[in-house]
Design brief:
Oligomer: single chain
CATH topology of the largest domain: Rossmann fold
CATH class of the largest domain: Alpha Beta
Distance between the termini: 27 Å
Strand order of the largest sheet: 2-1-3-4-5
Shape: elongated
CATH superfamily of the largest domain: Response regulator
Number of domains: 2
Mean pLDDT: 89
Low-confidence stretches: none
Structural class: alpha/beta
Helix content: 40-55%
Length: 222
């Protein structure tokens, strides 16, 4: 799942980005409301975390434009504006949740999970492939009643392979799903994650087949 964080406090945004990536989400960050508006027009995100006091274009204007385009992705406002009228205005503009600073990261992570579940009411939160069950919000993979321990990167690889079940996924598609704008992209690191994931899935009867020159294909042996 891909999250856009719009926050102009560098220290705060670094902390949020680290937490979200450790939880298995791909996160893109910008400090500019104008850049955020452009990104939201051109890239499909699953969630927007939005500060209000932004340079150039205010967060409320970003939100207004988003809803004017009938884009219904969940929006969590994260701001220092803590007055009642600010909260009411943010929710009336179309935010799904409103959280004030300072805050605790575990609460932010819980609200993100709740919004992602809510945003998928018309989609399956759980993806089933052969014996595998993948909780896309809780970021858990199970076979029967046994959980398979996967790293955040391995979860990201599995998620995109499951989304395109039965189709070949290129390395470029995996990288786009796994990495945010400001992260270093390494084909070798991505291949290592695929290799490790393959080893963990093989006992469950699920294989990741390498299609030379094209990418990877998820296959179930059942």
């Amino acid at each position: 799942m891909r999250i856009l964080l719009v926050e102009d406090d560098e220290i705060l945004s670094d902390g949020i980005a680290r937490a979200m990536r450790l939880a298995g989400y791909a996160l893109d960050h910008t400090s500019s409301g104008l850049d955020a508006d452009h990104a939201l027009e051109t890239i499909a995100f699953d969630l927007l975390i939005l500060d209000l006091g932004l340079p150039r274009v205010d967060g409320l204007e970003v939100l207004r434009r988003l809803r004017a385009r009938n884009q219904m992705l969940p929006v969590l406002i994260l701001t220092a504006r803590d007055r009642l009228e600010d909260r009411v205005t943010g929710l009336d503009f179309g935010a799904d949740d409103y959280m004030t600073k300072p805050f605790d990261l575990p609460e932010l992570e819980a609200r993100v999970r709740a919004l992602l579940r809510r945003g998928r009411t018309n989609q399956n939160v759980e993806v089933v492939y052969g014996p595998l069950r993948f909780d896309t919000v809780g970021r858990r993979v199970t076979v029967g009643d046994q959980q398979i321990e996967l790293s955040a990167r391995e979860l990201a690889v599995l998620e995109v392979l499951l989304q395109r079940g039965g189709s070949i996924v290129s390395k470029e598609q995996l990288i786009e799903h796994m990495y945010g704008w400001d992260e270093e992209v390494s084909h070798n690191a991505m291949e290592v994650n695929v290799h490790r994931l393959r080893k963990k899935l093989e006992p469950a009867g699920v294989n990741i087949r390498t299609i030379r020159g094209l990418g990877y294909l998820l296959e179930s042996q059942s």
